[in-house]
Automatic annotation (TrEMBL), chain A:
<keyword id="KW-0812">Transmembrane</keyword>
<dbReference type="InterPro" id="IPR050642">
    <property type="entry name" value="PDH_E1_Alpha_Subunit"/>
</dbReference>
<keyword id="KW-1133">Transmembrane helix</keyword>
<keyword id="KW-0786">Thiamine pyrophosphate</keyword>
<dbReference type="Pfam" id="PF00676">
    <property type="entry name" value="E1_dh"/>
</dbReference>
<feature type="domain" description="Dehydrogenase E1 component">
    <location>
        <begin position="14"/>
        <end position="306"/>
    </location>
</feature>
<comment type="function">
    <text>The pyruvate dehydrogenase complex catalyzes the overall conversion of pyruvate to acetyl-CoA and CO(2).</text>
</comment>
<keyword id="KW-0670">Pyruvate</keyword>
<dbReference type="InterPro" id="IPR017597">
    <property type="entry name" value="Pyrv_DH_E1_asu_subgrp-y"/>
</dbReference>
From TrEMBL, chain B:
<feature type="domain" description="Transketolase-like pyrimidine-binding">
    <location>
        <begin position="5"/>
        <end position="180"/>
    </location>
</feature>
<dbReference type="Pfam" id="PF02779">
    <property type="entry name" value="Transket_pyr"/>
</dbReference>
<keyword id="KW-0560">Oxidoreductase</keyword>
<dbReference type="InterPro" id="IPR033248">
    <property type="entry name" value="Transketolase_C"/>
</dbReference>
<dbReference type="InterPro" id="IPR005475">
    <property type="entry name" value="Transketolase-like_Pyr-bd"/>
</dbReference>
<keyword id="KW-0670">Pyruvate</keyword>
<keyword id="KW-0786">Thiamine pyrophosphate</keyword>
<dbReference type="InterPro" id="IPR009014">
    <property type="entry name" value="Transketo_C/PFOR_II"/>
</dbReference>
<dbReference type="InterPro" id="IPR029061">
    <property type="entry name" value="THDP-binding"/>
</dbReference>
Length: 324, 327
């Protein structure tokens, strides 16, 4: 494992940013500053962080409704993400999308999609356009284990493999589709094996270890970039929080959650970097302070941002400029 | 250049012209390539443009429609062909939850310049899973545009208009129209999306129709003229947006309304048109509005039952006669 201090710092910082951002979001939710559905990514930070660290700014990302982490580490300003959660006009989707629909065209963030499996065909089309237009770009498509039961999962894997498209499929297998355990939803719960059946190179990765995810993503991306077609990564992970803020978590035991918390990606990272003798050089305290300030600024920005005027309600249903 | 061609040829010429003009345009769908298109619309285009631009897809409506949306978001100008609108229900999630909503949900960042063409309508004894008319349903949805070309000229022009449009446009081609011949002028300036067209002037009543039912309405109007009833026949052309202005102007002229719609009556586009006339031109009416719709049954297989289920020139004429007897 070769990892520079700079890289290690960034991985830790990005994971911590997601963690603190979402802890704050949960708090704001209970204060009713944030409404609607709020799906927290806490526990899964290593996946988005490890994958995104290997991307170039021009690479595209398609995500799900649990996408705050993806949006933040793809480079959308935390202020704009927070304002979006508030539904304010300075949010990354002008406040119209909310938590489940973060978009940023400049950052090539093609959005969070709240219909399970619905983003996969889009990733196929985005990648197809890149291939046809001769762009050296990769599209990363994130989805959960729940999406595996949807027809669009199978349709999209088939198309991507058939047409040899530059897509990296990342399944965030957190064991539960909302409250239903994977084994109760899939006759074959081995997800990577399903992907393999489409003749897609597939790997299973420890999704709690950012270094392992990073390494797997690096290899996967080099395969995809070399024109050899899509790669599928099944990242085995766990969400420490409920499915959404409305979930009483009747479907799993506290013991199980506690067991997984021992594999908290922040702890795992610390342990691994101690083994690599780089932990001291990361400057965790300074990072904590930096992140704390970012979050405070984001909340401040969201608080101060305005509401979109009601007379703009029907804006953006259709494009304003239609050639005559 | 003016000539007579078929509706099928008109659509093909439009796709061909668009593909020649713009490298970003491609056609994708089931059997559009090697088979030549299930209604032979794309016959010969694979040989001209190759399999990267005339893309045969597997049977996965949601997958390839969503692919079209992603490609449109990322700089291409895809035309997705769905074999019949009945199959489009498999792609409903992509069309409604994604294509129609992306511009709004993204705060204006991502528009979806996608064209989806599909065959619609009954009349070929294909029974209840290949014979329906869902254009009225789609017209319910903000964010998409719904076109229903009836004439050969529109079959051609609407493809180009849809491709030039920055938003998702659905084109419903009635399957019985493909063989129909009509005048075509390659140099004509297209009538824009959202404009209805008066196809026959008349003073006694207005018949609003679209797609193949335009011709049933025109046939009925010819018959009625022999009885001294002069019907104005309006081709709606576009179901979303609807051309309220032309509709209201016609009602203000004739004071009687008949709508012909191949959708089911309940919750149909004809119901919407009636509601709008009620809102905007109620005091122009001399009689209650009437409509000829498809019977509220899944379309049956036997010819006599199928014919009994859908609108016909005879049904239109009969409805007009009843309407004219109203005070």
């Amino acid at each position: 494992m070769s990892l520079t201090i700079k890289e290690a710092k960034k991985l830790y910082r990005d994971m911590l940013l997601i963690r603190r951002f979402e802890e704050k979001a949960a708090e704001l939710y209970t204060e009713e500053k944030i409404r609607g559905f709020l799906h927290l990514y806490i526990g899964e930070e290593a996946v988005a962080t490890g994958i995104m660290a290997t991307l170039k700014p021009e690479d595209g990302v398609v995500a799900t409704y649990r996408e705050h982490g993806h949006a933040l580490v793809k480079g959308i300003e935390p202020q704009k993400v927070m304002a979006e959660l508030y539904g304010k006009i300075d949010g990354c989707s002008r406040g119209r999308g909310g938590s489940m629909h973060l978009f940023d065209k400049e950052k090539n963030f093609y959005g969070g999609y709240a219909i399970v499996g619905g983003g996969l065909p889009l990733a196929v089309g985005i990648a197809l356009a890149d291939k046809r237009l001769g762009r050296e770009r990769v599209t990363v498509c994130f989805f959960g284990d729940g999406a595996v039961a949807e027809g669009e999962f199978h349709e999209s894997l088939n198309l991507a493999a058939l047409w040899n498209l530059p897509v990296l499929f990342v399944c965030e297998n957190n064991l539960y589709g909302m409250g239903t355990r994977l084994e109760l939803a899939e006759s074959e719960p081995d997800i990577a094996k399903k992907a393999e059946s489409y003749r897609i190179e597939s790997h299973r990765v420890d999704g709690m270890d950012v270094l392992k995810v990073h390494e797997a993503a690096r290899k996967a991306l080099s395969h995809v970039r070399s024109g050899k077609g899509p790669v599928f990564l099944e990242c085995q992970t766990y969400r420490f929080r409920a499915h959404s803020m409305f979930d009483a978590e009747l479907y799993r035991s506290k013991e199980e959650v506690e067991e997984w918390k021992k594999k908290d990606p922040l702890l795992v990272f610390r342990k691994r970097s101690e083994e690599l003798e780089i932990w001291e050089k990361i400057g965790a305290d300074a990072i904590e302070k930096e992140v704390e300030k970012i979050i405070a600024d984001a909340v401040d920005f969201a608080e101060k941002s305005g509401w979109e005027p009601v007379d703009e309600l029907t804006k953006y249903v259709y494009s304003e400029e239609v050639p005559s | 250049m003016k000539k007579e061609i078929t509706y099928r040829e008109a659509v093909r010429i439009a796709i061909d012209t668009a593909m020649e003009k713009d490298e970003r345009v491609f056609l994708a769908g089931e059997d559009v390539g090697r088979y030549g298109g299930s209604y032979a619309v794309s016959m010969g285009l694979l040989e001209k443009y190759g399999s990267e631009r005339i893309v045969d897809t597997p049977l996965c409506e949601s997958g390839f429609t969503g692919m079209g949306i992603g490609a449109a978001m990322n700089g291409m100008r895809p035309i997705v062909e769905i074999m019949t609108c009945n199959f489009s229900l498999l792609a409903l999630d992509q069309i409604v939850n994604n294509a129609a909503h992306l511009l709004h949900m993204s705060g204006g960042q991502f528009n979806v310049p996608l064209v989806i063409r599909m065959a619609t309508g009954a009349g070929k004894q294909l029974a209840a899973q290949h014979s329906h008319s869902f254009e009225g349903w789609y017209a319910h949805i903000p964010g998409i545009k719904v076109l229903t070309p009836a004439t050969v000229q529109d079959a051609h022009d609407m493809v180009g208009l849809a491709l030039d449009d920055p938003d998702p446009v659905l084109i419903f081609e009635n399957a019985l129209l493909y063989n129909r011949k009509g005048p075509f002028d390659s140099a004509a300036k297209p009538l824009p999306i959202g404009k209805a067209k008066v196809m026959r002037e008349g003073n006694n009543l207005s018949i609003f129709a679209y797609g193949i039912n335009l011709f049933k309405a025109l046939d009925a109007a010819e018959e009625l003229a022999k009885e001294g009833i002069e019907a104005e026949v309006v081709d709606l052309r576009s179901l979303r947006p609807l051309d309220d202005e032309t509709i209201v102007a016609s009602v203000a002229k004739t004071h009687r309304v008949l709508i012909v719609d191949e959708g089911w009556r309940s919750g149909s586009i004809s119901a919407e048109i009636m509601a709008r006339i009620n809102e905007k031109a109620f005091y122009e009416l001399d009689a209650p509005m009437a409509r000829v719709c498809t019977e509220e049954v899944p379309i049956p297989y036997p010819r006599h039952l199928e014919e009994a289920a859908i609108p016909s020139a005879e049904k239109v004429a009969a409805a007009v006669r009843t309407l004219m007897k109203e005070a």
